[in-house]
Every structure is written in structure tokens, then in C-alpha cells.
Amino acid sequence: MLHSSNLNFASNCDPLNTNAVVRSLKAEFSRHFAGEPSFFRAPGRVNLIGEHTDYNEGYVLPAAIDFDVRIACAKDDGSKLRVYSVQQTEDAELDLAESDPHPRHDWTDYIRGVELQLRKGGTSVRGANLVIDGRVPMGAGLSSSAALEVSVSKGLMELSGQSMNGVEMARLCQRAENEFVGARCGIMDQFSSIFGRAGHAMLLDCRSLELEYVPLPNSVCVVICNTMVRHSLSSGEYNKRRAQCEEGVRYFAARRDGVTALRDVSESLLTQHGDSLPDVLFRRCRHVVTENARVLRAANALKAGDLATLGKLMYESHTSLKDDYEVSCQELDIMVHLASETPGTWGSRMTGGGFGGCTISIVSRDSVAEFKSRMSREYKSATSIDPEIYVTSAAEGAGILT
User: Fold this and answer.
1) Residue 305: what pLDDT?
2) Cβ neighbourhood burial of 30 (10 Å; 0-12, 13-18, 19+)
3) What CATH class does 220-392 carry?
4) What pLDDT does 21 receive?
5) Strands 200-205 and 59-75
6) CATH number among 3.40.50.720, 1.10.760.10, 3.30.230.10, 1.25.40.10, domain 2-216
7) Coil, strand, or helix at residue 5?
8) Which has the minimum average pLDDT: 16-20, 26-30, 48-52, 206-210?
9) What was the pLDDT predicted at 375?
10) What residue segments make up the domains of the chain, in order of their start?
11) pLDDT band at 232 (very low <50, low <70, confident <90, very high)
12) Which residues are catalytic?
């Protein structure tokens, strides 16, 4: 494995794509602000397997995707961050002189959280104008928030004339979301956005932050199916699951030395002592423990080109998320079931925090067209909802657009 502290930001985007992106961003920036901006991007991510394991210091197998957040930014003489969002079609001002800013509970909180963490770490954040063009579907479980955090932190660091390695930036963006936004996410999303590599998934140890790139075979595509629903209980239930995991850690730590996270609980330890846990806590712990094992097996299967085993583990992961962790929903379950019955599908599961959002399916390249057509038709028939289906590839991580 490569240790992540030795890795720098991934290389810039393909220049053929970059030229058009930069022209569009520059034109948008000129409509709202003066000055000559710099340009940055950071991708969203999809997680092949390893859900709700990152904040338990476990293993995940994500990939950056070719949906990203792009920003144009330039210095301003004032003491404010002035921001325009292309997707929200609205602007906002964040006063850097404000002594005790509070969350507004909107998209600007991710920017404010990053700015506060940068200043807390000693970075001199200056007044700036930013245009944000987000191309990651929001509320779909594809880490649009992490892509926004990483792109903004990259831009503000550049304007300050300072630098930061990728691991530090991932931790900073995670703290911004944990402490200011109030979402107790793990580090997977921010790390994936920074360290993604084209054509590869990333086997990440969320404790040591050791990283191994695992090639994705050219014979398959990653297909993301958006259920187009996001149930309102998602954020509160996410934090509740994390608290339940912490309660499980306290239980096992009292029975075995060295347990500081569910990562340290083996399947044999769970079997030996789990009977005394309340049923709900036992099932929460069982998901995390078995999911960690599935991630390692899935990475090995992927390295061996064993798509059948990879797919089987993906289906098992979804069942565990549905029954033990209870973060799926009817729409996600329908999506996975339909995928399992569609020719050319190797495996499918929900991806992201749950309660809506997306599924990820590994589909043979020559079956993608049929997969899209059948999934759209059958999901609409079952739910009366038109899904969005994205065929994507593993992409490069955050970088400068030149």
C-alpha cells in the first residue's frame, strides 16, 4: 500500500475538456465580478463497497467520478467572501470579520466551515470573489458537499499563497463538515475527492489512511441510478447511527483490551459477546464488522478480475445495509432488485448515507444501453418516478484548471 502522506494532488484535468470548462467559468465570473480568476475543480465520489465503515475507522473502496464542482476565484480588497452559485442562481456574502458566525443551514455553510478551519489552522484567508459551478447531483449520495469543500479549500489556499498536503486538506474539510455544518461524516468523501485516480478504485484504510489503487476492468462500466428521492430523516438518522456505533465500541471495549473503534471488533468477538447487546445495537455492529470484511474481499476480487465475487459481495452489502443498518428505503431496494434481474449486471447496491439517493451497479460495457433502458422503464413503472441514470468512470482527483 501507499501511505497517503506521500501523495500529492492528482494531476490536472484533460486539457481538451479543461479549455471549454475554463472559458465557461471565466465568462460566468466576468458576469458577476471584476478581476482575473484562477480555476479549480474537485470531483464527487461513488463507493463501490464499504458503507458507514469510514467513521468506524474501517475500510472503504470508493472511486472519484467525472461529476465535479468547479470554481473560479480571485482576490478582493474587502473583508468578505462574495460567492455566486450557478446551480442555486443566487449569491451570498460571508463577512470574514464576523467574530462568531453561525450556520445558515444552506449551501454556504460548507464554504464558511472551510474558511473557519483554514483560519483556525493559521491560514490568512483574504477577501475573495468566487463563482461555483457544481456538476455533482445534489442530495444523491455522491458527495457534492465534499467536492464543494475541497474545491473551495484549494482555491482559498491558492489565494493565500500557502500550500497544504492532501491528507491535511481532507482532514480540514472533514472537520468543516463535522464541526460547522453538523454532519458527522467520516473522511472517505473528502479523501476520495482529493486522491482519485482515473480508471481506479481506492482501497482506503480509514484509520491509517493507507491507500491502494485498484484498477477497474475496461470490460465494465460504473452505472449510477438516482432514485430521485431523499427522505427527510436522513441527516438525523446518520448521526444516530454513528452514536449507536460509539455505544457498541464502549460495550466491546469493556470486554476486550484494545477496542477503540468497531474496526477492532472481529467477527469472532462479535459472536462471542454480541448476545448481550440489545438487538438494534447488535445489528448495527454486525453490519460494520461484516462490511469491513466484505471490502477486503471485494478489493481482492477486483484485483483478480473476479467480477462474480465482487457482485455477490455488493448484493450482500446492500442486504446488510437494509436489514442490519436500516438505512435503505423502498426506492433503493427496488433499484437494486431491478438491477439484479437485468442482463449484464454483475452487482448492485445502495451507495452513500442512505434513505434515498443512488445505487451503484457494475455493468458489462456492451449491456449498458439495455441496462439504462430497462431500469428507466421498470423503475418508473414501480414508483411513478423518472430516475436519472449516469454512466461514469473513475476520475482524477482535485486539481487546478489551467
Assistant:
1) 95
2) middle
3) alpha beta
4) 87
5) antiparallel
6) 3.30.230.10
7) helix
8) 16-20
9) 98
10) 2-216, 220-392
11) low
12) 189
